Amino acid sequence: MRRKVCLITGVGPGTGSALVHRFSQDYQVAMLARSQDRLSNLEGQLEGVKGYPCDVSDRAALERVLDSVKDELGSPSILVHNAVGGAFGSFLDIEPSVLENNFQVNTMALLHLARSLAPDMVATGEGAIIITGNTSAYRGMPGFAGFAPTKAAQRVLAESMARDLGPKGVHVGYVAIDAVIDLEWTRERMPDKPDDYFCKPQDIAEECYRIAHQPRSAWSFNSIIRPFGENWSVS
Description:
alpha/beta
């Protein structure tokens, strides 16, 4: 039998790639990213994964890719929306277009993805939509004006989806990462931090996989994860 399909957006060098490695153990994985080279590299490493270059903020391009995924692999039973648009700066510093673009990536892309994929999940009576977020979804700090409003909107949209889709058999979960993710550039910016200060991409992926496979009697929506030594930014 053909394996079920998982679609993952935002396949970057950290969490996105870790998600592909984890879910490809049990699913065919459709990978979405702007970088063809990164997708090709993963296709060479793993069986059952296929890359689809796409900027998820481009609605027409996203719709074409989703049609291709359905035609070539089948309709996904799991969606992990990991693509993220971010920017630092106060509301006086940022260009309004930056906030608008981040809203397209973080919030509108989730809407378009869910509208395309959720009906087939409902028809089969099962499925999961997992969104990776962060603490900006819960608070607005001065230097995050170009980012936090879009993540807060994303979380609220996801909650609305969860209340709608849950009774129809489709689980929606929001995984907020209250941590600095272990990436090459974060290590370079924080060379004085110990290894256990950083949240490991493979551990984030494992939590996303777990949330996607929770038993129906114990679904969770909000999941906030952090390294053991992290000060709590949100509760």
